[in-house]
Amino acid sequence: MPYNIALNFEDGVTRFITCNDDETVLDAAYRAHIRLPMDCSDGVCGTCKGACHQGKFDLGDEYIDDALSDEELEAGKVLTCQMVPASDCVVEIPIASSFCKAGPTELTAVVDEVNLVSPTAIELKIIAQSPVEFLAGQYVNIQVPGTQETRAYSFSSQPGSDQLSFLIRNVSGGLMSTWLVGKARTGDSLSLNGPMGSFYLRPVERPVLMLAGGTGLAPFLAMLEYLKVQAVEHPIHLIYGVTNEDDLVGLAALEVFADIIPSFSYKTVVANPESQHPLTGYVTHHMEDAALDQATDVYLCGPPPMVDAVLGYFRDNTIKPHSFHYEKFAPSLVSTKEKVA
């Protein structure tokens, strides 16, 4: 059976290819007109070396140690010329996509709904021409109609659907916000470019702590959409912080996720000290029931001040999780996303 392979390039671009039975990733990529690095294609030179930490595959025994050592194999390194997938996989390619003639995919879609879900957030729902594959947590660049400007927004919907949604900060005077609130109509055409980003959900092999700030909830909604159809046993805990209580969005969806995913729990926190919300302060004030050790994967997404504060809290308290993945975003005149894995 064919498998979906996500090729994650060094510059954050992700391209999806289909790998047939007994076909190597290198051959499948070339069939899709993506020229991955290679020289010998026989497991001798090591030029096609990448990494795979997500998915099952077979490397056979035809390659030599100089191309891929036992230590590299143990660290998740692979040779794409020898790698034959046995499941869907994510393969990290240590080179920019432009060198492989594999730029971001150009997508077209139409506006379905624009909803003002809070004073500070807009929900955009669109319908793509065909299902869009992405890794839960990734983003796409959307061109602001009538301009050459783009804005980067994380998907909040389930991967692999043509029904896409985004949670967008409502910025006064913002180019995209102004268009969405004042001009957008159902059926309007949109141009998208992506998917992109190294902030995405890895295999859940240990407890997961998710920390969201404001519209930084969006990628976690996509992750939870993905997880609701997976068999997840490890605890997943989300702490969602906003400035004011009326900034809270997506609570109905979080309740549904809590019902469907037995190991998922969440809490909401409001920063305004005058709020009557049960929990006030910052997300770092309410981590008492979260696993915070080397057996935990932490995902963090929010505005720069919130992300910097959490990073400082972890540093000052010498908290070192098993892995730490974060994304911070800010309104700007151009697409701005900082994602660190």
UniProtKB/TrEMBL annotation:
PROSITE patterns: 2FE2S_FER_1 (PS00197), 2FE2S_FER_2 (PS51085), 4FE4S_FER_2 (PS51379), FAD_FR (PS51384)
Required cofactor names: [2Fe-2S] cluster
Matching Pfam families: FAD_binding_6, Fer2, NAD_binding_1
Occurrences of domain 2Fe-2S ferredoxin-type (ranges): 3-97
Domain FAD-binding FR-type positions: 104-202
GO molecular function: 2 iron, 2 sulfur cluster binding; oxidoreductase activity
Alphabetized InterPro entries for the sequence: 2Fe-2S_ferredoxin-like_sf, 2Fe-2S_ferredoxin-type, 2Fe2S_fd_BS, 4Fe4S_Fe-S-bd, BenC-like_FAD_NAD-bd, Beta-grasp_dom_sf, Cbr1-like_FAD-bd_dom, FAD-bd_FR_type
Cross-referenced Gene3D superfamilies: 3.10.20.30, Nucleotide-binding domain of ferredoxin-NADP reductase (FNR) module, Translation factors
Ranges for domain 4Fe-4S ferredoxin-type: 30-62
NCBIfam families: BenC (NF040810)
Name this protein carries in UniProt: Benzoate 1,2-dioxygenase electron transfer component BenC
Gene designation: benC
